Amino acid sequence: MKKLTIIGATGSLGLPITKQLSQKGIQVKAVVRDVESAKKKLPKGVEVVYGDVSDKASLASALIGSETIYLNLNTTNWNESAPFQPEREGIINVIDTGKVLGVKHIMQIVGIDLSHPEFATKGMEYKTNRIRKPAIEHLKNSGIHYTYFHCSVFLDSFPTFIQDEDFGIIGDHKHPVYFTNTTDLAENISNAIGNEKAYNRSFTVQGTEGISFPEAAKRFASVYNPKIQVSEYPMETIKHLGLPSKEYEEFMEHMLSYVEQLKEEQVSETTWEILGKPSLSIEEFTRSLIEKS
């Protein structure tokens, strides 16, 4: 039986991935900060243990017996001077602890922009990569086998753009995007466990079809709720959304500006050969979301 320890199992992407890996028969251990809350969200077959990436002592206990780890952490700012960032010091703590405990393989999700900066038509740098890079280099130099999944934009995020019956897209998004989803990524992760062909490599994770954000939104909405209308708004709209902080507002503007000028090409053939080809169209994935809701 395949075994996997997941850190970040209850996040917006981590939760569906964890559920699907468990459904595949993988023995999953979730390392979480709030055990009781996680138990309510995760399948009964998932072992839930306490661990905090800021606390090496808790990791030393949580990671006992783990051979393969999947990291699904998230950075929502690019403050390089912050004393702690989950995707920097947090992951370094996991690596250092894992090495002592004999962890063999660590996998992590990152963006496709990190492996293909040439997709940025305006030469923009996605600033959160400044946070991620030190931990990435630390893992590559650790002696632990690594696998990175460089993912395109997730269809899973689409419901968050919907308010009432309006799918609001901020920015002028005309370039092709090869949208992916957590179902196909879960399959890639499953196929990477114990797979020596996946060791010490980076894989791009894309769908098979390159289309613009507005067109993808229309196809998603046609299945999700045909009453939904897709609307496009200028970037300045972000300033009027009432986001929780100025820092988060700046992060969202930077993220959407980066995606706006991102022009993907299909570069995932090697991923398909080693870890499996995407199986779901936009419409098929949308129907699966409806079934699970």
From TrEMBL:
**NmrA-like domain: from which residue to which, for each copy?**
2-268
TM stretches of this protein: none
Q: Its domain of life?
A: Bacteria
InterPro entries for the chain: Ergot_Alk_Oxidoreductase, NAD(P)-bd_dom_sf, NmrA-like
Q: What is this protein called?
A: Uncharacterized protein YbjT (DUF2867 family)
Species this protein is from: Aureibacter tunicatorum
